[in-house]
Amino acid sequence: MNTKKNLVIGSGRGYSWYILEPFIRSFTQNVSNADLVLFADDISDFTRYMLEEIGKNFHGGVMKIFPFPDELKTRHPANARWKMFADYIGEHHEEYEQILISDTRDVIFQDDVFKCFENEKKYVGYAEDFGDVGGKVFGGIHYWIKDTFNEEEASKMDEKICVCPGTVIGSSNEIKILVQKMIEYMPRNVDFYGEDQAVYVYIVHNHLVPVENEIFIDCWKGAILSTEWFHSLNPIKFDGKNILRGDGGIPALVHQYDKHPETAQFVSENYHDKRYRLNEKFTDIKSMCDQLPHLIISKNLNESLKLFVNYLLGKTDFVGCGTLFADYWQILLLQNSSELQSEILEVAFQRVIISAFKDGIYVNQARCIMRCLELCKKNNRVLTTDFEEWLKSRIIKMVKFHLENKNSFRYEMCINLMSRAGLVNHKYFYILQAEVLLMSDKKYLALENYKTAAGFKNSPEKEKLILEEYKLRMRENIPENFKEALM
Q1: Do 121 and 213 touch, CB atoms closer than 8 A?
Q2: Distance between CA atoms of residues 95 and 133, nearest Å
Q3: CA–CA distance from 101 to each of 37, 62, 168, 175, 397 (Å)?
Q4: CA–CA separation, 172 vs 320, rounded Å?
Q5: Distance between CA 301 and CA 296 in Å, rounded?
Q6: What pLDDT does residue 359 have?
Q7: Measured between alpha carbons, how far is 70 from 43 in angstroms, rounded to an integer?
Q8: What does the pLDDT read at residue 485?
Q9: What is the spatial distance between Cα 67 and Cα 73, in angstroms, rounded to a whole number?
Q10: Up-side HSE of residue 228: CA atoms within 13 Å toward CB?
Q11: How confident is the model at residue 316 (pLDDT cuts 50, 70, 90)?
Q12: pLDDT of 469
């Protein structure tokens, strides 16, 4: 009988205890005979304390927390993690039977995932990300592969199943080879969100890992459910205690639950300790911010207000905390409390968010804040007079950034955000649509959108230069009789 343990390994940069708690608690409740290794960077004293407290009573294995090496702190954490995983697994893989590489921000365990594969030998289980690489079904990562490798390699992958690097499980030796291949094929001069999935898909579909048993885990009946695109096209199902997959069964692992309000709320209700009380021994701003959501879900609005007024109100620099407050505002809004303390906190969170994002905003942050704005309107919650206009201006600034830097993998998400913000009659909306149409080889439809964008008056000089660049590009791809329209 094999007595080796299994291993779960993950990482996180800037994560709060609120983010990590569902992952950690669901793991301790459902997985036995496994170690947990976590590489953590930029976490608060409070979050580290909570992790260490859980670790003291870890059943069936040990929990180890390591910092990010200094040389990897400047890389995107999604890419940096593979070097840390490769180093640790390379040294310790013989101690384990199976290894799960897992995201920690948006994963919960509903059963012991290792038992689902205990009869498999020399295997790797690739969790499908629902849809094809080219995006004909939904999403797609064609442009990530193009930006990481080239157009030829991206086109070769378009018909392939999209697989997700956020959850991959396998025999220890096969996972060791996989992470080594990730490091080998990850370009030295590229570093953007999505690069690791591009490399991962390239490795999987070129069969660069010598695996005797490849298992593609689908969203309908597999042990791992990746929910983002799947639940965008299919109904979300629950049985009261679990999130269900397509066939109504219970997946052992749920990934990307935070992409849908229903699943996010379900996880919050089931995997957070609702008895939390304020711990005043943590005085750094990150620790104080990290305690807020636990007070909110514990319905301790008086303590939440006390923390904000006594400790946070005097802080003038909330840069770095904006994403936290956007998450916490959403938690508060989902409760839809009519208490005065809730209203005060809701206004305070809006002011902090404006302060924290004064230098810019990312797509995922904008999506969360837009969700908060929509919840405010839906539930008639308090909204400061300038917040909606502030968000619109930040979305436009974000769109300009992605266009100027040719971050094509963000264009469709930016279109969605502009639509939800009521910015459909804006030149950048038409430019984004033109870019997406051009990438789909719909050149004449793209031309019409470029013409509409060019018709907006009073553009700043830099924006005019951007439009001229698009005109030049279009002249190279259209018949002579259309060129006059762009003059």
Answers
A1: yes
A2: 35
A3: 10, 16, 5, 9, 36
A4: 37
A5: 6
A6: 76
A7: 15
A8: 46
A9: 10
A10: 17
A11: low
A12: 65
**Residues 125, 117: contact at Cβ < 8 Å?**
yes
Tokens describing residue 244 = 């269900």
Closest CA to 230 of 220, 239, 222, 238: 220
Confidence (pLDDT) at 206: 93
Order of strands across the sheet that contains 5-13: 63-67, 34-41, 5-13, 96-102, 161-171, 123-132, 213-217
Given this model, what pLDDT does residue 476 score? 61
Under 8 Å CB-to-CB from 427, ≥6 apart: which residues? Answer: 452, 453, 454, 456, 459, 463, 467
pLDDT at 475 over 70: no
pLDDT at residue 448 greater than cutoff 90: no
Asked if residue 210 lies in contact with residue 177, where contact means CB atoms within 8 angstroms, the answer is yes
- What does the alpha-carbon distance between residue 329 and residue 293 come to, in Å, rounded to a whole number? 9
Whole-number Å distance between alpha carbons of 455 and 430: 10
Mean pLDDT of 452-468: 66
Separation of alpha carbons 111 and 297, rounded Å: 25
pLDDT tens by residue, 99-110? 999 999 999 999
- CB-based contacts of 360: which residues, under 8 Å, 6+ apart? 394, 397, 398, 401
Give the integer Cα–Cα distance in Å for 318 and 308.
Answer: 13
What pLDDT digit, counting tens, does each position of 319-352 carry?
Answer: 667 788 898 898 899 888 888 999 999 998 998 8
For 5-218, CATH gives 3.90.550.10
Contact 254, 236 (CB under 8 A): no
Rounded CA separation 286/289 (Å): 5
Delimit the domains of the chain by residue range: 5-218, 285-397
